[in-house]
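hey so i finally got around to running the thing on that chain from the lab meeting. sorry it took forever, my laptop kept dying and i had to restart like 3 times. anyway pasting the input first so we r on the same page abt which one it is
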Amino acid sequence: VASVFTSNNENFDNKTQLQLRGMAILKEHQNMGFGKLLIEEIFSFIESTQVELLWFNARESAVPFYEKLGCTKKGASFGIPEIGLHFLMYKYFDI
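ok and heres what got predicted. didnt touch it at all, straight out
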């Protein structure tokens, strides 16, 4: 599952932003390529719009996954109570 919402993050100046929220793959289906397919579909959707930026908070353990897909970390890690360390991440899109 993945949800994408119109939401501007004050750390970016882009006028058109989307936030990725709730990205998750069931444990028994992880490492089978489903997450990559989901993200690639989201990227394809964004490329068909006039959105400049996708941003999201990624669990520390997921950062390498998103980096392989062209996303970048911004700033230091931060904790979310009862969930763990996260990083603000983003990807720019040409419009």
